[in-house]
């Protein structure tokens, strides 16, 4: 509130000396507190002794004996972007000396930046805005970018005519708080003259205020720039992102625009308008100054350690339940966990959605080893063990409900699947029965498969009637013959097909009183076909008649077929 009430516009030392110089001082304080090498600081130990004399009005005294320094940016995204711009400017400057006749746009198209798959998305966004290529590299099994991976890719790109110029590494990745191998990567970058190595420690950097965590930043001496966000884990209100560089002149050369109306007579002072994108700047350093003076280094260390202990407590609670698993190495305040036996990630997504909708907790998801995880991060300043236990209780209760509901839903789906399968099987059986019945009716009734017969039939289904049918036979299903029947006489109509009628004609020729039982499946009954005795002359006549009516035996050329016979033969 005080920094806003003062309402200074600190774009230069002349506009607000206190805003400018306090920013320089508190960033040196914090840089020393987290163990940054002296190369990143504005004042060395010797230079600090001369500050008091410079404050007494001698504006010509140069108090900045080092090339490094720090600046407060709005976010880590700004820190990474301005460092990428500085690296691009340095690479183009060097390449223009080597190739003075090549256009700058051609040289720009050759530049290649690198980062890990676990790096924050702001690296990719920065490359888009800087119009440079970016190659995203695969980390190892611990989600750490290794030097061998980087060297192999950079050598391949160099062989293809590309120019490596920027490498962004991460200490404390967003997804699982993993740490890139800075010592290995730093040695690789030393082999390429134009490469700028940046270290992004937006979250984990605050923990380096505790000496026991500083081993995680080994290799920082190889870096050209380093950033952390005090508004993430160091009790400072947004926005307050700290950026340190080894050589501030490389940074400002890429961003200097110095019109006459912004110039002043204090040549030895720092103008932070050359350190970032915006011209006007808020009094951010006052916020950080209050935090450092209120808590002190020991108070901030206690705060960080307490959060790490709470995270370890939550990790133990998760591991004590065999339904859950932890997928990251818990080194600080972040725990990545998930429900086991969830290959589709459906349960974990539902669990997180239900918890967030309840308003009791808020967590966000991420991917670790291509698995969906839920990120539990201790962030409340006054969080206690009871808060952790309460959070775990909410998670367990919600998980039981989600799993139970999913099981019920699965059972209902299985029942529905069974019902659908049963209906499908029943339909198949019905279709099969219908097809069999239809086939039997096809054999028995030519009108099923030949509509011409149906049209030629004068009425509904009638049994076979020959013109000389014997009046003594009273069985309506009997097929009778007559000695006096003319060989050219045809049945008026018949519902017994030609193939079946042809077979029956041969059966009745053996002896008198032949009884042939025939069962029709679609009628579920048995029928008996009888014949009377016939003379040899009559048998010969019937044989000739059968040959003429049969679709199997060839017809004589002299025999004239009726239209009905032709259609039935077809």
From TrEMBL:
Alphabetized InterPro entries for the sequence: Aromatic_deC, PyrdxlP-dep_de-COase, PyrdxlP-dep_Trfase, PyrdxlP-dep_Trfase_major, PyrdxlP-dep_Trfase_small, Pyridoxal-P_BS
Cofactor: pyridoxal 5'-phosphate
Polar residues composition-biased segments: 559-570
N6-(pyridoxal phosphate)lysine modifications at: 232
GO terms, biological process: amino acid metabolic process; carboxylic acid metabolic process
Biased composition (Basic and acidic residues): 534-546
The keyword Transmembrane belongs to this UniProt entry's keyword annotation: no
GO MF annotation, one: pyridoxal phosphate binding
Any Pfam family: Pyridoxal_deC
Region (Disordered): 454-476, 529-570
Recorded GO CC terms: cytoplasm
Keywords: Decarboxylase, Lyase, Pyridoxal phosphate
Family (UniProt): Belongs to the group II decarboxylase family.
Protein name as it appears in the record: Tyrosine decarboxylase
Organism: Aphis gossypii (Cotton aphid)
């Amino acid at each position: 509130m005080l920094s806003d009430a003062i309402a200074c516009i600190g774009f230069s030392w002349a506009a607000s000396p206190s805003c400018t110089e306090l920013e320089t001082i508190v960033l040196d304080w914090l840089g020393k507190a987290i163990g940054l090498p002296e190369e990143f600081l504005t004042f060395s130990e010797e230079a600090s002794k001369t500050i008091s004399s410079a404050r007494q009005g001698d504006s010509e005294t140069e108090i900045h004996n080092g090339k490094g320094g720090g600046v407060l940016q709005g976010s880590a995204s700004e820190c990474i972007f301005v460092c990428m711009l500085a690296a691009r400017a340095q690479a183009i400057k060097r390449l223009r000396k080597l190739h003075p006749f090549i256009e700058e746009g051609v040289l720009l198209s050759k530049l290649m930046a690198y980062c890990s798959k676990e790096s924050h998305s702001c690296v990719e966004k920065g490359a888009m805005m800087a119009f440079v290529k970016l190659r995203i590299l695969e980390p190892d099994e611990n989600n750490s970018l290794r030097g061998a991976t980087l060297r192999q890719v950079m050598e391949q790109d160099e062989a293809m005519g590309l120019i490596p110029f920027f490498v962004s590494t991460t200490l404390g990745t967003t997804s699982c708080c993993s740490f890139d191998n800075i010592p290995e990567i730093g040695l690789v970058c030393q082999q390429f003259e134009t490469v700028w190595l940046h270290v992004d420690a937006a979250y984990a950097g605050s923990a380096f205020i505790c000496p026991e965590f500083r081993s995680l930043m080994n290799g920082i001496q190889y870096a050209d720039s380093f950033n952390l966000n005090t508004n993430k884990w160091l009790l400072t209100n947004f926005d307050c992102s700290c950026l340190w560089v080894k050589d501030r002149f490389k940074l400002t050369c890429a961003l200097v625009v110095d019109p006459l109306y912004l110039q002043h007579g204090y040549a030895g002072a720092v103008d932070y308008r050359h350190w970032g994108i915006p011209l006007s700047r808020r009094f951010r350093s006052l916020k950080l100054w209050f935090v450092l003076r209120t808590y002190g280094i020991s108070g901030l260390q206690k705060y960080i350690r307490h959060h790490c202990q709470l995270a370890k407590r939550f990790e133990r609670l998760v591991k004590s339940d065999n339904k859950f698993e932890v997928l990251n190495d818990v080194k600080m305040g972040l725990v990545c966990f998930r429900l086991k036996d969830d290959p589709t990630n459906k349960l974990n997504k539902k669990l997180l959605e239900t918890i967030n909708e309840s308003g009791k907790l808020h967590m966000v998801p991420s991917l670790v080893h291509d698995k969906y995880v839920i990120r539990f991060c201790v962030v409340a300043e006054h969080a206690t063990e009871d808060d952790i236990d309460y959070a775990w209780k909410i998670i367990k209760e919600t998980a039981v409900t989600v799993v139970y509901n999913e099981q019920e839903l699965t059972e209902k789906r299985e029942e529905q699947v069974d019902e659908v399968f049963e209906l499908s099987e029943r339909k198949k059986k019905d279709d099969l029965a219908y097809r069999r019945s239809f086939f039997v009716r096809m054999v028995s009734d030519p009108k099923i498969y030949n509509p011409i017969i149906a049209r030629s039939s004068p009425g509904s289904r009638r049994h076979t009637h020959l013109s000389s049918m014997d009046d003594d036979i009273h069985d309506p299903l009997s097929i009778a013959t007559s000695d006096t029947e003319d060989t050219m006489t045809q049945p008026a109509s018949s519902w017994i097909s030609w193939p079946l009628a042809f077979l029956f004609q041969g059966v009745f020729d053996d002896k008198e009183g032949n009884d042939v039982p025939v069962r029709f499946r679609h009628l579920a009954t048995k029928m008996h076909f009888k014949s009377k005795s016939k003379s040899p002359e009559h048998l010969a006549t019937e044989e000739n008649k059968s040959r003429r009516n049969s679709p199997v035996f060839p017809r004589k050329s002299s025999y004239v077929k009726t239209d009905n016979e032709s259609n039935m033969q077809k």
